[in-house]
Amino acid sequence: DTAVSQTPKYLVTQMGNDKSIKCEQNLGHDTMYWYKQDSKKFLKIMFSYNNKELIINETVPNRFSPKSPDKAHLNLHINSLELGDSAVYFCASSPGTSGAANTGELFFGEGSRLTVL
Amino acid sequence: QKEVEQNSGPLSVPEGAIASLNCTYSDRGSQSFFWYRQYSGKSPELIMSIYSNGDKEDGRFTAQLNKASQYVSLLIRDSQPSDSATYLCAVDDDKIIFGKGTRLHILP
């Protein structure tokens, strides 16, 4: 029974297109995240939601728009895709918000590999 | 800009030896520290967390924290080929910040 699941696992698309990635967690966690891992394997936070409320919004182009319909789901929509958007996007969840106990215990999905041609 | 620094490696260690992975962080106020392991093509998984100065042991893994030196390390005893992976140091600083990871290669 998958704890954090993302779809799709692979995305290949042309520049300028719009795409979405969906994430669901069944761990009962309050906080969900989107991370981007580039070709050099650097894992960088993009967004964080706590119980549907946006709490972290890093310096990310506004072409990226997260949405959390409920605390178990966090989606990522990307408009006007660019070559530099090619990366693996990881969804993650944690029991609480940053700063509280055990909040660094992130549970990651399998990742969605986006290739922009 | 808060940073977490790691040597990218690769770090090559003979099977059965001790692998030592190091990490430094910039924010002196950080309180929580983590080590994640990521196999090639897979997602990161938490292997150790440490919150207070000193050593914390879990099986073959020992995490060491020195807040005065802003330094955290991970020791892997009796290294196995299955330990070959990228190890990511992470610091909880209002958000979880990751280092760029150290690639570890255990030589059979």
Question: How would you briefly describe this protein structure?
Answer:
With 117 residues, chain A is an all-beta fold. Chain A is built from no helices and eleven strands.
pLDDT averaged over residues of chain B = 94
Amino- and carboxy-terminal Cα gap of chain B: 40 Å
| Total strands of chain B | 11
- The number of helical segments of chain A is 0
- The N- to C-terminal Cα distance of chain A equals 34 Å
Class computed from helices, strands and strand pairing of chain B: mainly beta
* Class per helix and strand makeup of chain A: mainly beta
**Largest protein-protein interface:** A-B, 23 and 25 residues
Radius of gyration of chain A: 13 Å
Q: Count the helices of chain B. How many?
A: 0
Show the helix and strand layout.
The complex is a heterodimer of chains A (117) and B (108).
Chain A: E1 4-7, E2 10-13, E3 19-25, E4 31-37, E5 43-50, E6 53-57, E7 64-70, E8 73-78, E9 87-94, E10 107-108, E11 112-116
Parallel strand pairs in A: 2-11
Antiparallel strand pairs in A: 1-3, 3-8, 4-5, 4-9, 5-6, 7-8, 9-10, 9-11
Chain B: E1 4-5, E2 11-14, E3 19-25, E4 32-38, E5 45-50, E6 54-58, E7 61-66, E8 71-76, E9 85-92, E10 96-98, E11 102-107
Parallel strand pairs in B: 2-11
Antiparallel strand pairs in B: 1-3, 3-8, 4-5, 4-9, 6-7, 7-8, 9-10, 9-11
